[in-house]
Amino acid sequence: MAHESEGLVVPLQRIEQAIIRMRGLNVMLDEDLAALYGVETRMLVQAVKRNIDRFPSDFMYQLTQEELGILKSQSVISRQWGGRRSLPYVFTEQGVAMLSGVLRSARAVQVNVEIMRAFVRLRSLLGSNKELLQRLDEMERRYDAQFQAVFEAIRELMRSPETPQRRIGFVRDD
Known about the structure:
Helix content is about 55%, strand content about 10%. By secondary structure, it is an alpha+beta fold.
């Protein structure tokens, strides 16, 4: 789908790298969203607080000090965080969708469309991986022990690396 990448306000890869995993959910940090929308983080947070009734806890929540420490150790949080006086907020897919109504700019609407596409793509990728694992389990049950080494090798190839080599958009829950 080459036409989808034409005219993007923000590169899809940049959005995908900003999606992280916290508390079992795919979320985006307030500072990453602010950068994508082209506003200051404090302005984004201020707009959200003025419309707090639109952001229940399953749309947005504030990180704990412990969660912040984990993100800093994984280099997911930018080094500029030191100037903030409060813990960052994270937004689920629904919270990001709600942001376009709160920010009310043409850029916010365009960026939101691109972010929603990234979340859908992420769900699709995760779904296809689950499907592949189910098929592998079925094949393993059907065939005898002579193929056991093959199945183990395939499973090993599908595993995520133990140590993060560079910043990526998905974070493994511990």
